[in-house]
Write a structure and sequence with these properties.
This is VanZ family protein. InterPro entries: Teicoplanin_resist-assoc, VanZ-like. Keywords: Membrane, Transmembrane, Transmembrane helix. The chain is an all-alpha fold. It has one domain. The chain has six helices and two strands; from the N terminus they run ααβαααβα. Strands 1-2 form a two-stranded parallel sheet. The protein is globular. The two termini are 14 Å apart.
């Protein structure tokens, strides 16, 4: 990869992280839950609740909370192997996605701008894995065209 492409990808990654940081800590939704101290350490409890009570919840709750957590980390999983040559396995991407998510969840809990939810760790890590899978498919397609 040329230096210019690497710089552009790095700039896009920084923009992505900046937008992610804003959404996770400063968006209007975060201001609405500010001061709330809550947590969930039971895996799949919140995910199950999304689908069990989806008929009672506003559609945006399920889409924003469930799919939003996945979509938010897809670029992270895509850009890790692009920018870091030693991170080219699903296990490494899952690990770094989990670590970033753990830091975010812990900071949201500590600063009282969100709820610490183990299901968010699961969904965010899944998003990173999906992003990585998209990179793998993109990379294979690019090699075939070469």
């Amino acid at each position: 990869m040329t230096i210019m492409k690497k710089l552009i990808n790095l700039l896009l990654f920084i923009v992505y992280l900046s937008v992610l940081f804003y959404l996770l800590f400063f968006s209007a939704y975060r201001n609405g839950v500010q001061g709330i101290v809550d947590y969930n350490f039971v895996p799949f409890k919140t995910i199950t609740r999304y689908f069990t009570y989806s008929f009672r919840l506003a559609p945006t709750v399920v889409t924003d909370e469930f799919f939003g957590n996945i979509l938010a980390f897809m670029p992270f999983g895509f850009y890790l192997p692009v920018l870091f040559s030693k991170i080219k396995s699903v296990g490494k991407v899952a690990f770094f996605s989990f670590i970033l998510s753990l830091c975010v969840e812990s900071a949201q809990f500590y600063f009282r701008v969100g709820v610490f939810d183990v299901d968010d760790l699961i969904l965010n890590s899944l998003g990173g894995i999906i992003g990585y899978s998209i990179w793998v498919l993109f990379n294979r397609g690019r090699k075939r065209l070469s």
